[in-house]
Amino acid sequence: MKNLLDDKYWNKKYEKGSLYDGLYHSNLPKKFSKFFIPFLYTDQIKKIKKYLRNEKILKIVEIGSAPGFFLIEIAKIFSAQPFGIEKSENGYEMNKRIFTFYGYNEENVLFKDFFDKDIETFSNYFDAVISRGFIEHFDNPSDVLKRHLLILRNDGFIIVTVPNKKNLNRFLSKFFKSESLEGHNLKVMNLKFFKKFAEENNLSIIFLGYIGIFDIYQINPSLKKKKIYNLFMKFQKILYLLFNFLPESVNLNSSFYSPSILFIAKKNG
Q1: Within a domain: 231
Q2: Per the domain annotation, does 259 fall within a domain?
Q3: Are 262 and 209 in contact (CB under 8 A)?
Q4: 75 near 146, Cβ under 8 Å?
Q5: CATH number reported for the structural domain that contains residue 101 in this entry
Q6: Are 77 and 49 in contact (CB under 8 A)?
Q7: What is the pLDDT of residue 30?
Q8: What local confidence, expressed as pLDDT, does residue 42 receive?
Q9: Domain count within the chain
Q10: Which of 43, 134, 138, 171 shows its CA 20 to 30 Å from the CA of 217?
Q11: Is 229 inside any structural domain?
Q12: Percent of the chain surpassing pLDDT 90
């Protein structure tokens, strides 16, 4: 299994003072600051809550779990016990801090490579397995998804998101950093890939679709384009505020500009 990105990339991503270290912290009161976080983040949570709210989910694991905020939000919805699997040292330490801050056991964050043999001790263990922006960094993403199913119990739920770096997002990615598409397997960035995987692995699809509005949050700019990017992000936060108040009946999702694909499916026993 070839990883298209090295460990240095992930350690830098989660080093102290990075974007991810402070992304969800704000000087605004909590009831206001939540409207300025990425709409994609809140949209994912809304979808998971909508489609799985009546399910019994007690143990949740996220693969590549740093920084840990998303996992905690999902754990709160289901009153579940969260676990994280994180291979980067900086990400692992950040995830532990976040767990401790919110009152969860930091020992539930495992400092491991998802492909280590001892991960198999969790075979059929979890009620829900989550990964976000993970499988597209491998040369054979179908095999990576099958490993998700290994640690998922029968009748449990797999929740996966991948970025949509095609169409408008492909152009923006190249504009802000010409080499930014390196390390991404674009073959997974379509609905057909997930439909085929579900058919071949006895999964019942609960939700599959493009989600989110136009959003440059996921794009990593080069140093030369950092100022332009920061300017864009000021306008982006205004969009977050506006779209967080839209009713769910308004569907603005599109394969042309939506930043992500969300896949929720049930593992049939």
Answers
A1: no
A2: yes
A3: yes
A4: no
A5: 3.40.50.150
A6: yes
A7: 45
A8: 77
A9: 1
A10: 138
A11: no
A12: 49
174 or 30: which carries more pLDDT confidence?
174
Better-scored residue on pLDDT, 28 or 50: 50
Beta bridge partners of 42: none
pLDDT for 56 beyond 80: yes
Does residue 239 fall inside a structural domain? no
pLDDT in tens, 78-95: 999 999 999 999 899 989
- Confidence class for position 253, pLDDT limits 50, 70, 90: confident
Structural domain boundaries, residue 58: 7-166+182-215+251-267
Instruction: Pick the closest to residue 215 from 12, 52, 83, 37 (CA basis).
Output: 37
Contact present, 174 and 145 (Cβ < 8 Å)? no
Are 186 and 261 in contact by the 8 Å Cβ rule? The answer is no
Give the pLDDT score at 2.
Answer: 66
- The DSSP string of the chain is --BSS-HHHHHHHTSTTSHHHHTT--SS-HHHHGGGS-HHHHHHHHHHHHHHTTS---EEEEES-TT-HHHHHHHHHHTPEEEEEE-SHHHHHHHHHHHHHTT--GGGEEES-TTSGGGGGGTT-EEEEEEES-GGGBS-HHHHHHHHHHTEEEEEEEEEEEE--STHHHHHHHHH-TTTTTT--GGGSSHHHHHHHHHHTTEEEEEEEEE--S--TT----GGGHHHHHHHHHHHHHHHHHHTTS-TT-----TTT--EEEEEEEE--
Angle at 91 between CA 86 and CA 238, to 5 degrees: 115
Cα angle 153, 156, 160 (rounded to 5 degrees) comes to 115
- For 199-242, how does the pLDDT look when each residue is reduced to its tens digit (9 = 90+)? 999 999 999 999 887 777 677 777 788 888 888 877 777 777 77
